Amino acid sequence: PTITYTDATGAARSVEATVGDSVMETAVRNGVPGIVAECGGSLSCATCHVFVDADDFASLPAMEEMEDEMLWGAAVDRQDTSRLCCQIKVTDGMDLHVTTPETQV
Ligand code: FES
Fold first, then answer.
1. pTM above 0.80?
2. Is 9 strand, coil or helix?
3. Pocket around ligand 1 at a 6 A CB cut-off
4. Among 86, 89, 100, which residue has the most ligand 1 atoms within 8 Å of its CB, making it the best to mutate?
5. What tens digit of pLDDT does each residue of 51-64 get?
6. Helix H segments across 22-86?
7. Per the database record, which ranges form the 2Fe-2S ferredoxin-type domain (predicted)?
8. Whole-angstrom distance, CA of residue 56 vs CA of residue 44
9. Are 84 and 65 in contact (CB under 8 A)?
10. N or C: which end of the chain has fewer CB within 10 A?
């Protein structure tokens, strides 16, 4: 699986991901900037907010209510394709594109 992270300046980096990790863990492990993940994936910080590529968004499992609530409460400039990437699991053959918000640099 491959995850491509684009930051707010437009710089993109693709990393090889491990099935079962989250998209947040993959970023942290690879030193991808823009994903702070203060809470370590326990759904309480929203500093792992990403905008998922529209085509990819549809193929992801729907978000749980808790994630939805965190996004409303804590994420700056939420969009239709916003997700908290600690809640996105890497799956076999995944080719995911996400962009980090301007506020996370
Ligand atoms: Fe804190 Fe995702 S890492 S909500």
1. yes
2. coil
3. 24, 37-39, 41, 43-48, 84, 86
4. 86
5. 999 999 999 999 99
6. 23-29, 54-59, 65-74
7. 1-104
8. 24
9. no
10. C
Atom of ligand 1 nearest to the CA of 70: 4
Right CATH number for 2-99 from 3.10.20.30, 3.40.50.300, 3.40.350.10, 3.30.1360.70?
A: 3.10.20.30
ipTM associated with this complex:
0.99
**Which pairing describes strands 82-84 and 12-16: parallel, antiparallel, or unpaired?**
unpaired
Q: How far does the centroid of ligand 1 lie from the alpha carbon of residue 93, in Å? A: 24
Over the stretch 9-50, which tens digit does the pLDDT of each residue have?
999 999 999 999 999 999 999 999 999 999 999 999 999 999
Residue among 22, 23, 24, 29 whose CB has most ligand 1 atoms within 8 A, to mutate? 24
Average pLDDT, the chain: 95
